[in-house]
């Protein structure tokens, strides 16, 4: 793979970085005499925090202006008649979000934060009964998910034995679908709930969501299947309704670029909300924003849930956070959606993989010798089994931070304004995003990576 090949691919696949504010050497506080201070960074960290769409600034300023001009009256009488009054601020965002996750409009709500939403959904969908009390998830789940699961079962009077975790087999770097199905088989009479990430945060693996969902549900109609889509939403095409998923939760500040701590979202299959009525509904954590909007301000002591995922909302949404989500989703719509971006993403991540595997420092996943100097890729090498991210594990492992290979590589990349995510002790996650990354800068990032490995190789 060459720079010429990178430029050829860039002529074929457009970049949309003009829609985003790009950090520079100067804005990052990096002084490097080999680069002009206003040289743009190579930002490969959208899997941690997406860059700011330029349109977001105006979207937020418009609402600050409304607050300044009319205060509380902007809830029902926005000074800019082209914009939504605050009482309904999240409603126009739903039809923008639904296609991103492959849902009907009535199955999506933009609300809350990821773990708060996940907890609310778990409490609603975890219905232990008889011997069916166990929760199945992965051994390396993101800590927030583990904390949610352990407290979920304890709230019902159970202990850790009611958590079933699927673990990566020795000598492998990610879970196989067959491994998950075997555990489902083993505990099929004891499972109440199955919950995995759409994409595993550490390895970047894209789980076969449709296969796992339908396999678990084929064992019993009493098994509920949900997904944490923090690293999947905006990254890979999703079809939650068609895949028969029961529920899902996600954040929006990674691939959806809504800003740090931005408004999150949920999916609840319509079969759970279409029967809602004042007298017949599935109890959930509830608040007045999920109640019949026509009666909301009558302050009635009568729960009348909305017949959609909106009924899971508890409080009025943050206006600022909501318009930040909306502005980014409008960019997604403008460029053709996730399916269109996926075409470039597959090529871009494969290009990165090809560059890495051509290096003399590359060690195949099957090589168990961890004393070799270099790196291996933890992420599945099959493009269909991953999103934008490749997770690189450096070796040999050194406890001393000053001598640790990953730490030295990460510091060198940062000094060259190549922004990526480190996961101690030995992993760097590289995420070339189709929205604002291109092939040439991906090529340059690997050149810097190989440069530092060459410089430090003699030390090991």
TrEMBL record:
Record-level GO cellular component terms: cytoplasm
InterPro entries xrefs: Kynureninase
EC number(s) reported in the record: 3.7.1.3
Class of the enzyme per the UniProt entry, highest EC level: hydrolase
Chief location bin: cytoplasm
Catalytic activity annotation: 3-hydroxy-L-kynurenine + H2O = 3-hydroxyanthranilate + L-alanine + H(+); L-kynurenine + H2O = anthranilate + L-alanine + H(+)
Residues the entry annotates as binding pyridoxal 5'-phosphate: 114-115, 142-145, 228, 231, 253, 288, 316
One of the GO biological process terms: quinolinate biosynthetic process
Keyword Cytoplasm: yes
Keyword Plastid: no
Signal sequence region: none
Subcellular location: Cytoplasm
Function in brief: Catalyzes the cleavage of L-kynurenine (L-Kyn) and L-3-hydroxykynurenine (L-3OHKyn) into anthranilic acid (AA) and 3-hydroxyanthranilic acid (3-OHAA), respectively.
Xref: HAMAP family: Kynureninase
Subunit-level organization: Homodimer.
Official protein name in the record: Kynureninase
């Amino acid at each position: 793979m060459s720079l010429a090949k990178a430029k050829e691919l860039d002529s074929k696949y457009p970049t949309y970085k003009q829609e985003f504010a790009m950090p520079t050497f100067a804005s990052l506080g990096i002084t490097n005499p080999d680069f002009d201070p206003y040289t743009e960074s190579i930002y490969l960290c959208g899997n941690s925090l997406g860059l700011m769409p330029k349109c977001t600034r105006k979207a937020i300023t418009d609402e600050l202006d409304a607050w300044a001009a009319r205060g509380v009256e902007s809830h029902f009488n926005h000074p800019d008649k082209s914009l939504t009054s605050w009482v309904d601020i999240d409603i126009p965002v739903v039809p923008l979000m639904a296609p991103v996750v492959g849902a009907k409009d009535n199955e999506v709500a933009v609300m809350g934060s990821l773990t708060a939403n996940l907890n609310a959904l778990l409490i609603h969908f975890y219905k232990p009964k008889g011997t069916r009390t166990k929760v199945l998830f992965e051994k390396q789940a993101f800590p927030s998910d583990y904390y949610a699961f352990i407290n979920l079962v304890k709230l019902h009077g159970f202990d850790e034995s009611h958590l079933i975790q699927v673990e990566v087999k020795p000598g492998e770097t990610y879970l196989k679908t067959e491994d998950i199905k075997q555990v489902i088989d083993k505990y099929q009479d004891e499972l109440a709930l199955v919950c995995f990430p759409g994409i595993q945060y550490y390895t970047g693996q894209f789980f076969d969501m449709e296969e796992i969902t339908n396999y678990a549900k084929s064992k019993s109609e009493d098994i509920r299947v949900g997904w944490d889509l923090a690293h999947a939403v905006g990254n890979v095409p999703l079809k939650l309704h068609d895949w028969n998923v029961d529920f899902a939760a996600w954040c929006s500040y990674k691939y959806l670029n809504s800003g740090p701590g931005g408004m999150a979202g949920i999916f609840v299959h319509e079969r759970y909300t279409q029967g809602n009525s004042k007298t017949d509904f599935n109890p959930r954590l509830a608040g007045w924003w999920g109640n019949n909007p026509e009666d909301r301000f009558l302050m009635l002591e009568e729960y009348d849930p909305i017949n959609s995922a909106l009924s899971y909302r508890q409080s009025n949404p943050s206006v600022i956070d909501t318009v930040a989500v909306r502005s980014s989703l409008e960019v997604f719509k403008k460029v053709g959606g996730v399916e269109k971006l996926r075409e470039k993403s597959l090529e871009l991540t494969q290009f990165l993989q090809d560059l890495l595997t051509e290096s003399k420092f590359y060690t195949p996943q099957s090589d168990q010798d961890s004393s070799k100097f270099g790196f291996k890729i933890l992420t599945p090498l099959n493009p269909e089994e991953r999103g934008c991210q490749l997770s690189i594990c450096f070796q040999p492992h050194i406890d001393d931070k000053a001598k640790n290979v990953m730490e030295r590589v990460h510091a060198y990349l940062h000094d060259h304004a190549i922004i990526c995510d480190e996961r101690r002790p030995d992993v760097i996650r590289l995420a070339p995003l189709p929205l604002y990354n291109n092939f040439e800068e991906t090529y340059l990032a690997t050149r810097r990576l190989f440069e530092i490995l060459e410089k430090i190789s003699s030390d090991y």
